[in-house]
Amino acid sequence: MRLILVLAAALSSLPSDAAIYVVRHAEKVATKKTDDPPLTAAGRKRAADLARYLSRVPLQSVYVTQFQRTRQTAEPAAAGHKLKPIQVKAEETAALAKTLRADHAGDDVLVVAHSDTIPDLLKSLGVSDGPKEELGDREYDNLFVVDLASASARLHWLRYGYAPAP
Fold this sequence. Notes:
Elements: H1 2-12, E1 19-24, H2 41-53, E2 59-64, H3 68-80, E3 86-87, H4 93-103, E4 108-113, H5 118-124, E5 142-147, E6 154-159
Parallel strand pairs: 1-4, 2-3, 2-4
Antiparallel strand pairs: 1-5, 5-6
Helix pairs in contact: 2-3, 4-5
């Protein structure tokens, strides 16, 4: 409960202008049988936590990739806002950034991406102080809030949910 309050306080201190909320998909099943594994029980809980944290954000759009783990992570938040996620190709971060800037100026948007695509997406959005390398294998709790109101994108790097197991 304390973490929810800390994140709520952090979100309330963000600019009132619209923002792009970028997260990595939640915890996935570790398997070599498929390159498209579903979420674990912990991942489904994290997805529900994300929906709860974003429940007061007036999301207008949700973007996911072609992989079920991003769709499953976004589903609770999208359903809570009565939105249908828009699917994009995971590797097309520059095109997605261009779409977000062109089509969603003034909108609050959730993007669920991957550990290896988030740094490029943030850079394409104009963020200069974001992660420079792929996120760690167990980093599922980052919440990148990108404020596009100014000429240079401003990043608020938060955490959400519980800390992943070591």
